[in-house]
Amino acid sequence: MTHWHPGSWRTYPLYQYPPYDDPMGVQRVTENLRGYPPLVAPGEVELLTEALAEAAAGRRFLLQGGDCAERFSDCTAASITARLQVLLQMSLVLTYATRKPVIRVGRMAGQYAKPRSADTETVNGQVLPAYRGDLVNDVGTDPVSRRPDPERMRWGYHHAAVTLNYIRALIEGGFADLHHPEKWDLGFIENSPHREAYRRIVDAITDAVTFMETIGGGGETLRRVSFYTSHEALLLPYEEALTRQDESGRWFNLGAHFLWVGYRTADPYGAHVHYLSGIANPVGIKVGPDTRPDFFRKLLEKLNPSRLSGRLTVISRYGAESVGEGLPALIETARADGQPVLWCCDPMHGNTRTTAAGRKTRMLSDIFRELEQTFEIHAACGSVLGGVHFELTGSAVTECLGGSSGITEQDLRTFYETACDPRLNAEQSLEMAFLIARLLRQDHAPN
Fold it and tell me: Minimal CA–CA distance to 173: which of 92, 229, 96, 227?
């Protein structure tokens, strides 16, 4: 792509761009960021691409999850540890149940920007610019807080670096050591209906590790796990500043291992898709009820003209009421075009609803239903659902309704902390892992 360079997106239609009143400030900050060290290495990105290719073939499974919108204030040891624990715990259940390696990708260390359905919102009778994530402005309810500030891109880089550094320190220090999976327990496990099943899994893994050590196997693979980071490639000046060329001439976004184009920016003729078309990272595409097969075909061709396996992950987010109508046509489109995509289900975004009190929430029953239907649709189409994508947190929030703890609308006010969309709490995430494990076992059960 000789016409592509990291800034060539500027000549394409741009969506969801903040109304900066200081364009020179944007230029100054991004020029500074170009001189900062990369956050990830090209070799790590290539390892993830290889793993995603195996997931597309059904030999691995992708678990992608984390906050809806990371807050700078959540860049603490406790918060980072809790989110990592939840993802490790979910992957433990899935690995044991399916006997497949799980690819762990966090919506972490960079998920600081969010698309919005409107440029403004009314708060306490005052019309304010929409909160677009900490990378752009603050969630505070006054005009000064909501002003898009270019300096926040610099803050975003530093918070991402600190988060990623701590994640790596935890993993290198043995946090994910399979010799001690019991350390991955969270406080909620005592009240979970899955506590005995989870403990049986922990005991079984401990026995297996002991056996491997007895016969001289295992080694470092039992002490460490691979963990990758991802975020939506939304604020393109920031993404451009973190795009670097390696010795082979390829361009990598080295602010994360994996990036995706959102549902609102997935225009094959738009700036976001053009930017992603030129980087060597694996790329995700969010699709849903408004994604037409002809549009989808253009997206696939734009982002993966060479039809490389592991390059594209298609993340479906239809909603429980719509998934049966739209997904089969897209599966057939990808197959007809010879695109070796990895199919992933995001059962969260299509099932968002607003309560009578005006609070956004999601029902676990809807999330479960879309997930079950998506597995069934792929099986009926002769396809493979190779991953899931969730918004979750390690905190005991009350943002999504239902689950074994029976969260109701009245409970939403108890611990509702998200700045954007409602997230699964730790207990609900574990429930989800057991559901996915059951569905995967059914999918591979002999006829």
Answer: 227
